[in-house]
Write a structure and sequence with these properties.
The protein is α+β, with helices and mostly antiparallel strands and 293 residues long. The chain is built from 6 helices and 20 strands. The longest helix is centred in the C-terminal third of the chain and has 16 residues. Bound molecules: succinic acid. The site of succinic acid has 9 residues, from β19 and β20.
Length: 293
């Protein structure tokens, strides 16, 4: 691990199983020691929050690049759609409609638990999400500790997932909408939907810890099982998540200027709905990851 001893970073853990506030760093010009300190805190606490960030889009991208090569969001990958002129690495998360067109993704509705881009072969390692406009209420984002989800699996459920993998739907987004540039299967059967196959239990490539990797519930399929058995196993896994003690969840109430950086390999996140007559705008950049094993 690179040396972080000269960093000015202050790390304040949330007290839950995940989440920490980081302060004392100029995110527009972090030193190598600062980056090392952020990386260590990110691996330890899974989700980091930086308040009152005064960085622009280019600094946001430059910061993310210090943690690895960047990836493009699915819309940009499949259709070449760019949200911010000249900066294709940024995806806009927003409900704002301008001249009759949505300027970003996800609208104002609830987004259920998911990991970013689980349906590609090498899903991102990190996501960095920065708030530019926030509604007066609602729109909170929560993260779930998937190490804890694995470590608390009942024995029989642990046995049921050994050696099993999930196929993660690459055609339909969580809300059921088909992604532009994809082809829907002829039959309406999840077994026919293309998508990456990843192990249900993965080993984190940096910490060596095991965690559950479920991607999202919608259109998931446990490879090799009859459909009804796949659904039953997924339902049991998701019921286990729903019953996790509160300390495995950490919730962010957004303020303008927040930057949230999370480990996309060992967390899932969800977003609360908010009033669509208010504006919410966030910019996200993702750092490439590796194939889950
Ligand atoms: C996301 O799911 O990546 C966006 C979360 C949010 O809108 O807060």
């Amino acid at each position: 691990m690179p040396d972080d001893s000269s960093s000015t970073a202050q790390i304040r853990p949330s007290g839950a199983a995940l989440g920490a506030d980081v302060s004392g760093i100029d995110l527009a010009a972090p030193s190598d020691a600062d980056i090392a300190a952020i990386r260590r805190a990110w691996l330890d606490h899974l989700v980091l929050r930086f308040r009152d960030c005064r960085i622009d889009d280019r600094q946001h991208v430059a910061l993310a690049r210090r943690f690895g090569e960047l990836d493009f969001n699915p819309g940009t990958r499949l259709t070449g759609k760019v949200y911010v002129d000249g900066i294709p690495e940024i995806v806009r998360i927003s409900n704002i409609v301008q001249d009759g067109r949505a300027i970003g993704e996800l609208g104002a509705g609830e987004a259920d638990w998911h990991t970013d881009m689980c349906f590609i072969d090498e899903p991102p390692a990190a996501s960095l999400l920065r708030s530019l406009e926030v509604p007066s209420q609602g729109g909170q984002t929560s993260w779930l500790d998937m190490y804890g989800a694995y470590e608390t699996l009942p024995e029989e459920l642990n046995r049921a997932v050994v050696g099993r993998s999930i196929k993660h739907d690459s055609v339909y987004a969580s809300a059921g909408k088909q992604r532009p540039g994809t082809t829907a299967p002829a039959r309406g059967d999840v077994r026919d939907i293309p998508g990456a196959v990843h192990p249900i239990v993965r080993t984190h490539p940096e910490t060596g810890r095991r965690c559950l990797y479920l991607g999202k519930r919608f259109n998931a399929y446990v490879v090799g099982l009859p459909l009804a058995e796949s659904e039953a196993l997924l339902d049991r896994l998701w019921a286990h998540l729903a019953a996790l003690p509160a300390r495995h969840i950490w919730t962010q109430n957004w303020r303008v200027g927040d930057l949230l950086m999370w480990d996309n390999r060992c967390t899932m996140h969800r977003r609360e709905a908010f009033d669509d007559s208010e504006r919410r705008l966030l910019h996200r950049v993702v750092v490439k990851g590796s194939r889950p094993v």
